[in-house]
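Section 5.1 Outputs to date
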Amino acid sequence: MVEKRCLECGEPILGRSDKKFCSDYCRNAYNNRKNKAGSNLIRTINNRLKKNWRILEQFNPEGKTKIHKSKLEAAGFDFNLFTSIYTTKKQSVYYFVYDQGYLDIGNNFYMLVKRQK
């Protein structure tokens, strides 16, 4: 019979036959190390998306408003980050950050909207 070894520290494993780690500490250390690079990238992008959402929420408390691009930029809004795009039948393109969206209406003005349920 082959003795199973912990994937993290290499110590012999006692217990169930499908066990991969000798302890919770080793399981957590292995998974944290394995997911570290991807987690940092995802965390950074999610934080920037949340910032964009907070800015839209701040400027759009009523659910629909018009705002100049310079106000959004001054607040730190990043127009390159959004979670979805919605195109209407009239070909208007709304960019959404979760449930908060914006539409370029020309002359550096944007219509801010909140997606209705």
